[in-house]
Specification:
single chain; binds magnesium ion; alpha+beta; Rossmann fold; binds adenosine-5'-diphosphate
Length: about 775
């Protein structure tokens, strides 16, 4: 059955070659009980390991069932050990962290037997060796004799043809030895049993044949055999393989015996995960918060259609020559000369100009009115504002930057009351009524009083004083007189007669208000607001007024007599009300969804148009939230990068711990290999271990991070008003992090697990 042909084996010890086997030629029968006798160091174990496929010979040949092993590869040897050979060692070599039953089953697991089959078989052989009542114990709960019985049961469980026993009774008292020998003798009835011993008496008492070794050579053989007449059998070996599930189970059992350490390892591994999880939770919460903000409050901020829409990219003005040039960031260099340079600030070539057309206005009319509170068109028209201080005594009121801000209120009732908090009186509801808008402390700039001819030395004015102001505006044909000689138009000056003739438009302040806290109009200036009807009425009249018609014909200002550029002329015509296309349109959506719908409609309008005819809107709210969102994402990336470093460090640590575990479990590696486990199977065991640790680390990390979000949220709540439950760990993030943890630790464990797989089985078994 087995034939050794001139087999040699030597070990390199330092510079010295130690010959362990010196050309051994031996043949074994299919069934016999061979004892190998010899003094210590004579090469018995080496011979056994060689024959059992645990170690490789240097030269010669081992012939198994007539098949030379010269060309055996690793898989062949693994399969041979698993199916054909059972080992019994002096030191039992049981895996201490699994049950007796699991130990016996292990070899069969490697040969791919089903769970039921191997349990049944393991119980059968354990009963055979008299351990029926101990199958669920751990090996270290047994006596030496019992442990050796477990080893015997394991050796024969897979029903091998050959059983190798290396000093099986070497560590057992003589009485128990007898029982063990009887067991082995029983096994030898239908198998080849090769037993190494240095006990002559034992050898002669039980064995059929005694082979004596000395200095690596056979010096005596009590019953030699030649296999010349043996039929060339065919050796059919099924390849072994361990299921990953089995590897997991083995690792899990091992980790269970080291609960504390595993937990500490996993905890250390989880720290990086906690960091990343917390950052993700916060970023997630902040982004949700911004979304909410955009949805609730900011949603109703208007979509702005400005004449020159904000283009962040091309924000820098483009200034033409002559004089020092500027680049995007400012000056190229400071001018040295003691000179100042006139220049014309032109609009950047890239600056888009929104030209609002009648077509666009009619398009806006088609928008579903349920989508918006109002569409507010702003015109550039300048109405004169005059204060009647006494009879025939009128004062022109400075407007704009220099005085009274004279502008329309917003149009819709609902929107009006939302925008202003009325302090006194009421909101204007016709063309003759005005609203005085003050700041939060009821203040107005001194310029306001100056413009109205009121002393600002006075500490305060009663509302009634202001209600009593006799304000007027006049339509252009009433207000302007044409000088027949020059063709220029000047204010008539004789306002009293116009008023007496009933042609003035009297205006009265009917209420005082300030901008409300939840105003959506945004930045309402203090000053005097008129009802939109007034503007409509004025523009209607202005369009066909003499001054407007005259100006439309001329490139010279009909008021100042100065030359006007084309651009300036357009501006003047707008101020005169001749050109009544709005300069700016504000659309106030009712909510976030409405805003989205409106945006889609505006985009659809632009879609077929060439670039320069498109009307570009600005969504200030989205701009703000986009920027904030980008900022938060940026900060998150940085924080995640930092936490990732700790994640990496902890992975490396897990790699090191796995390596320590490899060192610790070297013996187990040897056992697995002796049972026919492939290198791949061994690395699987350790990969399974890191997978478990990684998974646990991930769970712990995510769990702790989840728990930490509660105190964190409490802290944030106490610091920031109105924000609760900010940090939210999303389910997806949690799952991903556990996965990342598994992957990282798995990768970190690859090197140690490879080291484990490459351990020499014999060396591994020798380790205590
Ligand atoms: P036995 O089992 O008969 O006591 P071994 O087969 O274990 O003897 O050893 C035979 C010889 O080979 C001894 O001299 C031993 O020191 C040497 N030897 C065995 N294994 C190794 C090894 N791994 N490295 C170096 N020398 C070894
Ligand atoms: Mg030995």
């Amino acid at each position: 059955m087995l034939t050794l042909k001139n087999v040699t084996k030597s070990y390199q010890v330092g510079d010295f070659m130690q010959n362990a086997l010196n050309g051994v030629s031996l043949s074994f029968r299919k069934q016999e009980f061979v004892a190998i006798l010899g003094p210590s160091g004579s090469g018995k174990t080496t011979l056994l390991n060689m024959v059992g496929g645990l170690d490789r010979y240097d030269s010669g040949d081992l012939i198994i069932e007539g098949k030379s092993t010269l060309h055996f590869d690793d898989n062949d040897w693994d399969a041979y050990r698993n199916h054909a050979v059972g080992f019994i060692f002096q030191s039992y070599n049981l895996i201490t962290h699994t049950s007796v039953l699991a130990n016996v089953e292990l070899g069969m697991t490697l040969s791919g037997l089903s769970h039921e089959d191997r349990t049944a078989r393991a119980l059968e052989v354990l009963e055979g060796v008299g351990l029926k009542d101990h199958v669920y114990k751990k090996p270290n709960q047994l006596s030496g004799g019992q442990m050796q019985r477990v080893a015997i049961a394991r050796a024969i469980a897979n029903n091998p043809d050959i059983v190798m026993a290396d000093e099986p009774t070497g560590a057992i008292d003589s009485e128990t030895s007898a029982q063990i020998m009887a067991l082995i003798q029983e096994i030898a009835k239908n198998k080849l049993v090769i037993m190494v011993t240095h006990d002559e008496a034992l050898a002669h008492k039980y064995a059929d044949r005694v082979v004596k070794l000395k200095d690596g050579e056979v010096i005596e053989d009590s019953n030699p055999y030649s296999d010349a007449q043996e039929v060339q059998g065919s050796l059919l070996l099924k390849k072994t393989s361990m299921a990953f599930k089995q590897a997991l189970k083995l690792s899990f059992n091992n980790l269970r015996t080291k609960k504390f350490r595993t937990l500490i390892t996993a905890f250390a591994g989880s720290i990086g995960i906690i960091g990343v999880a917390m950052v993700l939770a916060l970023a997630n919460g902040l982004n949700n918060e911004i979304d909410d903000l955009e949805r609730s409050t900011l949603a109703q901020f208007p979509l702005q259609i400005d004449p020159f829409p904000i283009d962040i990219e091309a924000a820098q003005g483009n200034f033409g020559p002559p004089g020092p040039q500027m680049d995007d960031g400012g000056f190229v260099e400071f001018p040295e000369a003691r000179e100042v340079y006139p220049f014309e600030a032109t609009v950047s070539e890239n600056q888009h100009i929104n030209v609002i057309t009648q077509d666009y206005l009619s398009f806006l009319d088609t928008l579903d009115p349920d989508l918006y509170f109002e569409i507010n068109a702003e015109y550039d028209v300048r109405m004169p504002l005059l204060l009647r201080e006494a009879e025939s005594q009128f004062r022109g009121v400075d407007q704009g930057g220099g005085g009274v801000d004279f502008e329309p209120t917003v149009t819709s009732e609902e929107f009006l009351s939302q925008s202003y908090d009325v302090i006194d009186g009421r909101l204007p509801d016709n063309a003759n009524e005005l609203l005085l808008v003050v700041d939060q402390a009821n203040r107005l700039n001194i310029r306001f009083f100056e413009a109205l001819g009121l002393s600002f030395e006075v500490e305060s004015y009663s509302f009634d004083t202001l209600y009593d102001l006799e304000l007027y505006t006049f339509l252009p044909n009433d207000y302007y007189l044409e000088n027949a000689d020059t063709g220029r138009f000047i204010p008539s000056g004789d306002y009293e007669s116009i008023v007496q003739a009933g042609d003035g438009i009297p205006l009265r302040i009917v209420g005082v208000a300030r901008e409300s806290a939840d105003s959506l109009a945004g930045f309402i200036d203090q000053g005097i607001k008129y009802h939109p009807d007034l503007e409509e009425l004025y523009i209607d009249a202005a369009k066909t007024s003499d001054i407007a018609l005259a100006q439309a014909e001329s490139s010279i200002s009909v008021i100042t007599g100065r030359e006007l550029s084309e651009q300036q002329k357009v501006g003047v015509l707008r101020q005169l009300g001749y050109d009544d296309t709005p300069t700016q349109i504000l659309i106030y959506p009712v909510d976030f969804n409405a805003k989205t719908e409106i945006r889609n409609a505006l985009d659809a309008y632009n879609e077929p148009l060439p670039d320069d005819e498109q009307i570009i809107y600005t969504d200030l709210a989205a701009l703000v939230t986009d920027l904030t969102g980008d900022l938060i994402n940026g900060v998150s990336y940085v924080l995640i990068a930092f936490s990732s470093i700790s994640l990496l460090v902890s992975s490396i640590m897990i790699g090191i711990i796995t390596y320590v575990s490899v060192l610790e479990r070297t013996k187990e590696i040897g056992i697995l290999r002796s049972l026919g486990a492939r290198k791949k199977d061994v690395s699987r065991v350790f990969n399974a271990e890191t997978t478990i640790i990684g998974f646990t680390a991930g769970l712990i990390g995510v769990g702790i991070a989840f728990i930490l979000t509660f105190p964190l949220n409490l802290l944030i709540e106490s610091l920031v008003d109105g924000i609760d439950g900010l940090a939210q760990l999303s389910f997806l993030a949690a799952i991903s992090l556990v996965l990342i943890s598994v992957i990282l630790t798995f990768v970190a464990g690859l090197i140690p697990s490879r080291i484990a797989a490459n351990k020499h089985p014999v060396e591994a078994l020798r380790v205590e």
